[in-house]
Amino acid sequence: MTTSTPIFTDRLHAGKDLAQAIYSEIQEIFAENQDISPIVYALPRGGLPVAAPVAQLLCCPLDIIVAKKISLPDNPELAIGAVTADGQVIWSKHKPVNSRVCQTALTQAEDKARKQQSVMGKGLHHYSAKNTIAIVVDDGIATGMTIAVAALSLRSQKPAEIWICAPVAPPELIEQLYTWGDRVIVLHTPDPFLSVSRFYQTFPQVETSEAMSYLQPSH
Question: What pLDDT tens digit does each residue of the chain (219 aa) get?
């Protein structure tokens, strides 16, 4: 698919479309095994408005898994890896050979992840992924680093399956995402991709207060 115009109005629009796609696939599994239940894990903050409609349609819990990209001060947009708040790490092919530089960048990213986990996880009931279908949701996938390390973290909890789900991702990443997830659901794979934001009419930064509101029972 080649496009230069937005696909989604906003994150909630994308989340509702994604929810329908996930719901269709999960019905097939429920028909065979009703003992397996899903849990939706959003990557905050931008993943929460997308994940909320998914959890709502599936009538299942919504939780968070905090992951941050590891980047260098002189090139903050380039992900050389990613780390979760619980210390799971993956590195990209762009990882520098200087181990001290890598360690500094890792420490900074892990600190950011832990701080966000501390703020957003306060008072939140966390759900174990063991024997569940762990559905990892973000507002889009650019490099795949953060959603991959989130999946790696969930894998340690021994879920029945991990699903990696997003409204958009580069077409060349899809095969690689199956390295981390058992099932990949991506609505659109535009080419050229360039950035996640260009496929949304409005794509503001999601503030912490808004992100946390999606985790309340009323949602």
Answer: 444 579 999 999 999 999 999 999 999 887 777 778 999 999 999 999 999 999 999 999 999 999 999 998 888 888 899 999 999 999 998 898 889 999 999 999 999 999 999 999 988 889 999 999 999 999 999 999 999 999 999 999 999 999 999 999 999 999 999 999 999 999 999 999 989 999 999 999 999 999 999 998 654
Angstrom distance (rounded) from CA 210 to CA 145 = 24
Give residue 45's Cα distance to chain centre. 10
**Contact in structure between 48 and 206 (CB atoms under 8 Å):** yes
| Block residue for tokens 């999960």 | 26
Residues 120, 91: Cα–Cα separation, whole Å:
25
